[in-house]
Design brief:
This protein is of the alpha+beta class. 26% of the residues lie in helices and 24% in strands.
């Protein structure tokens, strides 16, 4: 009999980070094909599909769902022999039971039906559903626990949709919704950031009239060349001059000294609806012109919203921008710093506001497109005067954009 084939966590993707098994897409005893998605591994708030290294039968799962995983650690064994294992053999190698709160399975659930244990489809399945203009309710799942596989989507026909069950109420009119792995990781990092760093926020107001005029003139040209010219691109560009003026904003506190980063790897917080938040990183912003920034930013945001980010896309950020104004917020304070960074820029909603201007020696009130910008800092790293200097340079850069 051939020796089992090992399935290991990718060491090059998880080096220096904590990873967790989010979900197994196959159960012991099920047949697998080479390069078929086998499990989902979550690292740095990104879900990565780990593919089977060879065809055969999933022999044993060594890391159950929610287990912590080290780089290169053994996750499972695949029996290269053809055919599925007998049910009794499969049962003998099932992983330890998952003790997380789960919705109760509806009566009558069985093979071919999606039960509420199965969770959301994998990223690969979601992309295939979108390409075929289908929803998960249109497909009969044949995977473990009724999970939908790639093959299910490829052979999908019209099926009767099944109502979604809700978790039983713990008491009164409330009901429990289990935390996703991403939401738990975000919660841990937010609490840790506030625990280790004293947060202080300063607020300025920026006039974006010059930015809007520049964007109106160049937007079509950028689109022809393959880049979407967003307002966030201008803030990324303005951060370069501000960081050069206040390099502490692009640093890391290590207890013995302040590590000043020469490269500007700026993360852009990107909301994924009810799925949470990711922060893809635009690398070496200091080397890019506005078109290069817009192009890199657009590619990252698109991949984020399509669940196609790689772990490397969210690692190594030295500074972060949170454009919370896109959802209507005027000011958010403090925006929690993305550790181990030292500062985070907040951009509020753009709206026309009355402003007093002086022309020909006379004062008058005009409407101008303006927004609030905030810089939340680690007060160990810099004081308010330096934070104010950062925003002073940033605002001046935005207001002096020229054609």
């Amino acid at each position: 009999m051939s020796a089992p084939i090992e399935v290991r966590a990718p060491a090059e993707q998880t080096e220096g980070t904590r990873s967790q098994v989010q979900r197994w897409l196959k159960a012991p005893g099920e047949a697998v094909r080479a390069d078929e998605p086998l499990l989902e591994l979550e690292t740095d708030k990104v879900t990565v599909e780990i593919a089977a290294p060879a065809s055969g039968t999933l022999h044993e799962i060594l890391k159950p769902e929610q287990a912590e995983v080290a780089p290169g650690e053994l996750l499972a064994l695949i029996d290269p022999a053809n055919g599925a294992q007998p049910a009794a053999r499969a049962a003998a190698v099932l992983p330890a039971p998952d003790v997380r709160p789960r919705p109760a399975a509806p009566s009558g659930a069985g093979p071919g039906k999606r039960d509420t244990d199965s969770g959301a489809p994998s990223p690969a399945v979601r992309r295939l559903l979108a390409e075929r203009n289908l929803t998960a309710d249109d497909v009969r799942g044949t995977g473990s626990g009724g999970r939908i596989t790639v093959d299910d989507v490829l052979g999908a026909g019209a099926l009767e949709a099944r109502p979604r069950e809700s978790t039983p109420a713990p008491e009164g009119d409330a009901h429990s919704v289990p935390h996703s792995a991403m939401r738990r990781r975000i919660a841990e990092r937010m609490v840790e950031s506030l625990r280790v760093a004293p947060h202080v926020t300063t607020v300025f107001e920026a006039d974006l009239g010059a930015v809007l005029a520049h964007r109106a003139q160049h937007r079509a040209d950028f689109e022809r060349r393959g880049a979407s010219l967003t307002l966030t691109a201008y803030f990324l560009q303005a951060c370069v001059a501000a960081i050069r003026a206040v390099p502490e904003a692009n640093s890391r506190w290590n207890g013995r000294a302040l590590d000043l980063h020469d490269a500007m790897h700026i993360g852009v917080a990107t909301a994924l609806g009810d799925r949470g938040l990711v922060v893809p990183v635009v690398r070496h912003v200091e080397t890019l012109d506005l078109f290069g920034i817009a192009q890199a930013l657009g590619e990252l945001v698109t991949r984020a919203r399509e669940d196609r980010l790689a772990p490397a896309d969210v690692r190594g950020g030295t500074f972060t921008i949170s454009n919370h104004g896109v959802s209507g917020s005027l000011v958010a304070t403090p925006i929690v710093i993305n550790q181990p960074q030292s500062a985070i820029l907040g951009v509020g909603k753009l709206e026309k506001r009355p402003v007093v201007v002086t022309e020909s020696g006379e004062e008058r009130i005009v409407a101008r497109p303006r927004c609030y910008v905030t810089l939340t800092i680690d007060h160990r790293v810099m004081d308010g005067e330096r934070a104010n200097r950062f925003l002073e340079v940033l605002v001046r850069g935005l207001e002096q954009v020229s054609n």
